[in-house]
């Protein structure tokens, strides 16, 4: 019974979320435009950090 209840609640929450996304589309785009540059900066920083660590490991192995 708990699995059916969780499935039903999940379906209801998904439908409500879809309705709210359509209703608040402008606000969603506004927030996405604000968050996207920050995510790109953080993602780029992580990629640079990972690349530097890999380069450091490669240089350490070649010695």
Architecture overview:
This protein has 63 residues and is mostly helical. The chain has a domain of 39 residues. Helices cover 95% and strands 0% of the residues. It contains two helices and no strands. It starts with a helix and ends with a helix. The mean pLDDT is 93.
Question: Summary?
Answer:
This protein has helices spanning 2-23, 25-62. With 63 residues, it is mainly α.
Q: How are the elements arranged and paired?
A:
Elements: H1 2-23, H2 25-62
Relative strand content? under 5%
**Broad shape:** elongated
What's the N-to-C terminus distance? 62 Å
Order of helices and strands: HH
Q: What would you call the structural class?
A: mainly alpha
- What Rg do the Cα atoms give? 22 Å
The mean pLDDT is 93
Please work out how many helical segments DSSP would assign: 2
Number of DSSP strands? Answer: 0
Q: In which range does the helix fraction lie? A: over 70%
Main sheet attributes: strand count, strand direction, barrel closure: none
Low-confidence stretches: none
Any descriptors?
mainly alpha, 63 residues
């Amino acid at each position: 019974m708990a699995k059916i209840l969780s499935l039903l609640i999940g379906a209801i929450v998904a439908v409500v979320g879809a309705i709210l996304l359509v209703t608040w589309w402008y606000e969603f785009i506004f927030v996405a435009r604000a968050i996207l540059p920050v995510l790109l900066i953080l993602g780029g920083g992580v990629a640079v950090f990972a690349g530097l660590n890999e380069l450091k490991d490669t240089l350490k192995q070649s010695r």
